[in-house]
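Duplicate of #3305? Posting structure anyway:
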């Protein structure tokens, strides 16, 4: 794999290394720095890559349209670096990034919302199984990112959920309240992103 990357780095446009999670580390990932023409990069579940190397890679790839880093060492500062703390030239380049996949990123906190809300160019945002997502935070994101065509926030534990049909201890009143809260929240999301595919 390293030989292929070295010989064809400049000509590669898409690279999916999610299946190489066990062998991907900083040493291997650093070889990707020459792939400056990538428009699509998937490093999902490559947990051995440090946040510093992740940032170095993304910074070296200004043409990225799709970035998948689910379950990686993605932090609040990482998102700030690629969306918020940019020079005018970098901001213009970063507008190419339309799809961001950050599911199961356990290091993210609610502070990352400041950066995400500056990613107004995003069309697809996947944040499933994210503990930092709250109802208020999600509404803030939807308000700031009107261009979203697909939003995935499934399995986010802090969002209103429909009561499970298997929850035998749930009272009828509690179930009714849960359903009402869920429908109200879903309506708010739909109003902010009309026509978008929302998975919640």
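Output from current build:
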């Amino acid at each position: 794999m390293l030989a292929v990357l070295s010989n064809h780095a400049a000509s590669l446009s898409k690279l999916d290394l999610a299946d190489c999670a066990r062998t991907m580390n900083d040493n291997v990932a650093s070889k990707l720095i020459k792939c400056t023409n990538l428009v699509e990069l998937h490093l999902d579940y490559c947990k051995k890559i440090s946040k510093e190397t992740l940032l170095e890679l993304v910074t070296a790839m200004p043409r990225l349209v799709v970035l998948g880093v689910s379950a990686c060492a993605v932090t609040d500062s990482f998102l700030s670096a690629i969306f918020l703390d940019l020079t005018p030239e970098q901001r213009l380049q970063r507008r190419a990034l339309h799809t961001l996949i950050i599911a199961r990123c356990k290091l993210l906190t609610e502070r990352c919302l400041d950066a995400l809300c500056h990613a107004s160019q995003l069309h697809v945002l996947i944040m499933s199984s994210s503990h930092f997502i709250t109802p208020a935070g999600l509404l803030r994101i939807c308000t700031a990112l009107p261009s979203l065509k697909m939003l995935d926030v499934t399995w986010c534990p802090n969002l209103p959920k429909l009561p499970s049909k298997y929850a035998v201890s749930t009272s009828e009143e509690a179930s009714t309240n849960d359903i009402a809260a869920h429908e109200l929240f879903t309506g708010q999301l739909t109003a902010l992103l009309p026509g978008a595919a929302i998975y919640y």
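Confirmed duplicate; merging threads. Helices lie at 2-8, 26-29, 51-59, 76-83, 88-94, 113-116, 135-144, 172-192. The beta strands are 14-16, 40-42, 66-68, 99-101, 124-126, 150-152, 197-199.
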